[in-house]
Amino acid sequence: MSGPRRPTDPSGLERYYVLTGGRSGPGGSASSLDVATLIISRAAAVPGLQHEHEEILRRCRDPLSVAELGAHLGLPFNILAVLLADLLDAGRIEARDPIPASDAGRGPDLALLEEVLSGLERL
Amino acid sequence: MDLKGFDHPGRHTAGGTVPTGARSVKVMIAGGFGTGKTTMVRSVSDIKPLTTEETLTQASADVDNLIGVADKQETTVSLDFGKIGINEQLVLYLFGTPGQERFWFLWNGLFKGALGAVVLVDTRRLASSFRAIEEMERQNVPFVIALNVFPDSKEHPIEEIRDALDISPHTPVVACDARDRESSRDVLIALIRHLKDRSAVALESR
Asked: Which of A38, A115, A118 sits opposite B22 (nearest CB)?
């Protein structure tokens, strides 16, 4: 394909390819990311960051789930995970996985369930 | 940490803002197509429900055989989700599972890390939730059955429905109106109580 690319066409696979530099999925630090993982900025945005990275840092000043970030940025999970991996590796964000449901067949912590229960009862 | 330049729009969870030290828990809302999953997420969420997309490449031949999908294409599935501020330090995320059967191969990943699930059942079409119940049992995800009462639903004794669904006597069955916030909240309360009972039993048997 020749001729200048239109930067005004941000949709579809081409956009994702550009955003991620062609990487298809995260490895290492971001491989455990869940839709309910909370992302928290650990650094302010600095000039020169990729726009999406900057956007993530800005939105995650207060913790935000990966699912919410994906919805706000209009990015599917696997693309967003690549971007989050970059920021994690650079120490710019912290990722806090959801509290695990069970370890070795034992149910979740009773104190946690009590906490959830009293929260729901207050609704 | 220098917070200069950071604005903090409130420390409470009511506005959908999560405090810095917070943790999350995850609950899934499952059930057949059209049983009211999105409706329940919407009625009980603190925020306007959002949709997030997961792009998947179907990779496993075994899975393809299982669900009878012949072509290998990229599929985008949407998850509707909402959240509930439990307290200053804890936020509960609710995810509605994709209703279409062809996406059920995804469920292994979806349910990882979930506390448990609500399986919504439309009593006019019990069979539409059979597959969801089977998946919960196969993956050992604790769940409650919520009978979503539609305006033209007939009254069925819960025991009759329990028999028809062929579920364990330990699995709670509750009736609800997924459109109603309190009713949906009560379903979540039933789920958490069930999880507590299971945990207590597991502790005793050790």
From this structure: A38
CB A39 within 8 A of CB A94: yes
Closest CA to A87 of A43, A37, A35, A120: A43
Q: Do B23 and A35 touch (CB under 8 A)?
A: no
**How near does any CA of chain B get to the CA of A20, in Å?**
14
For the domain that residue B90 is a member of, what is the CATH number? 3.40.50.300
Phi, psi of B36 (to 5 degrees): 110, 20
SS3 of residue B141 by DSSP? coil
This model's pTM is above 0.90: no
> Is A12-121 CATH 1.10.3470?
no
Bridge partners, residue A40, by sequence: A94
Report the complex ipTM: 0.81
User: Which amino acid is residue A32, in one-letter code?
Assistant: S
CA atoms of A95 and A114, how far apart (whole Å): 25
User: Would you tell me the crossing angle of helices A110-121 and B181-204 to the nearest 10 degrees?
Assistant: 160
**Is B89 a domain residue?**
yes
What CA–CA distance (Å, rounded) separates A45 from B176? Answer: 46
Within a domain: residue B15?
A: no
Torsion of CA B186, B190, B193, B197, to 10 degrees: 170
- Among positive and negative, which fits the CA dihedral A83, A84, A89, A91? positive
Q: B87, A119 in Cβ contact below 8 A?
A: yes
**For the segment B65-110, what is each residue's pLDDT rounded down to a tens digit?**
444 444 445 566 788 999 999 999 999 999 998 866 666 666 667 7
